[in-house]
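Pipeline run #58 for the internal structure catalog. This entry was flagged by the ingest filter as a single-chain record with no existing model, so it goes straight to prediction. Upstream metadata was stripped on purpose; only the residue string is passed forward. Reviewer on rotation: M.T. Logging verbosity set to normal.
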Amino acid sequence: MKNIKAIIFDAYGTLFDVNSAAEKCKEKIGDKWEGFSNYWRITQLEYTWLRSLMKRHKDFWKITEDSLDKSMKAYKIDSSMKNELLYLYKILSPFNEVPEVLKTLKKKNLKLAILSNGTPSLLNQLIKSNNLENIFSDIFSIEEVGIYKPDSKVYDIPIKKYQIKKEEVVFLSSNTWDVSGGGNYGYNSIWVNRNNNIFDNLDYKPKNEIKNLTELLAII
């Protein structure tokens, strides 16, 4: 790719494993931990979209807690585990290749940033708990505009900050709706397809699809 000035990453599911919170409790939860974790994530995302449509904004941490409450009831998880699961969500583990790839990209003369639904405090805690300080030029949160992805106001945040063109941005996400949101906005969106999923039909098809961030190094 030519004339790229910024590489922008989604956080949840792209850099950090959203299933790692429940996985760390799988002995307590049992075999249903993965189904429960996926249900929690889907509910969390649905709440972001529904609240955006209803113009009833709550920050991502409150939505994470609300969606956990529903998921624990649906999967009959002991309510005494709530605080532990919430704490573990604040310190989600990165995918294995992420730290080294980010350090390699940092050596290039490009801005590295995160653009996420998460609150600034949540994102900063994730970065600190995983020793990723001094990697990113900026941590952009949807809280700046008060609406969730994939609203175009979110993707506009880095453009306004950096005063660059949309096509000068590479945007990476594991979420197909987010890839489409960024791509339809004008970014060079790359799909990080970690689980061999099928892409959604949302008027955008990414030119590049990778299985993990290591494959990004051959593109940039």
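catalog note: The chain has a mean pLDDT of 97.
catalog note: Strands lie at 6-9, 111-116, 138-141, 169-173, 188-192, 208-210.
status: ready for reviewer M.T.
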